[in-house]
Amino acid sequence: MNTPELETERLILRRFTENDLEAFYQIYSDEEVNTFLPWFPLKTMEEARRFYESRYETKYREKSAYNYAVCLKTDNIPIGYVNVSMDDSFDFGYGLRREFWHRGIITEAGKSVVEQLRKAGIPYITATHDVNNPRSGAVMKRLGMKYCYSYEEQWQPKDFPVIFRMYQLNLDGNEDRVYDGYWKASYVHFVEKTNC
Q1: Residues 53, 54, 55, CA angle at the centre, nearest 5°?
Q2: For this protein, what is any one GO molecular function term (predicted)?
């Protein structure tokens, strides 16, 4: 299976399925949850179905896909997600329904996914957060990621400029590697002196 199911003390991490569309909609329709994400909050179940098909179903057909529904063991209903892109950024992204914030759920899920990636031979992961969303950066630090640099991007489809901080965790022991794709793509890039 190209998305191996994972289990932690409190959580099951598995594929989303069509049966999860109502829970999927609850995650992706919340304005506060999606404030710092590129897409607009979903407005209808039909939008949720299209988003699921384009963002998840297509990924699950690929050879390797790390696109997880984060579920509590108590009911196995998705309350969030952890996704890792399989391009050269190995971008690590996550989201969680608001009522489950501040319980360490994404950190717990993230650590499990990181270990799976290490076993699979993925060399590193990157993650980025809007400078106005330092809580997301705190999750990255708890996963062992280190700040590398900041850059500006015209966020799409919302179409406004955002300064992102890029964090990285090398999984193969090559501590000197820094992914420079975002740096090269942006005319505005710099290293912040503060402790990010």
Answers
A1: 100
A2: acyltransferase activity, transferring groups other than amino-acyl groups
